[in-house]
Amino acid sequence: MGRRATTLLAGTDEFYLPDLILAETVYVLQCVYRVPRPEVAALARAVIGSRNIQTDDPAVLIRTVDVYEHQRLSFADAYRVALAEADSDSVIASFDKGIGKVGTVRRIEP
Q1: What Å distances lie between residue 46 and 53, 84, 102, 107, CA to CA?
Q2: What sequence ranges are listed for the domain PIN (predicted)?
Q3: Fewer CB within 10 A of the end CB, N or C, for the chain?
Q4: For the segment 93-107, what is each residue's pLDDT rounded down to a tens digit?
Q5: How confident is the model at residue 1 (pLDDT cuts 50, 70, 90)?
């Protein structure tokens, strides 16, 4: 499967990658294939930066990957942090105290 994905990304066709599909890919790599977090982050960055991959907001996804890798949050929580950082008025309601440790967003208990 990895060889097919590499061939696909090396081609000339352009593809739209929804954020949710990237999140699912990260989950499968980490939880099913037990790929270490730094490798998952590197692979995600490579996909986001691929010349033939289009995403809604690559900057938000790159920030998501950074938070996922360095703050040890789930990809979904890292995505919430990246979105909240992009909107300075955002507050994250979450039981996950790890979100508050990021320091760039405000978290409240639900």
Answers
A1: 10, 24, 24, 30
A2: 4-103
A3: N
A4: 999 999 999 999 999
A5: low
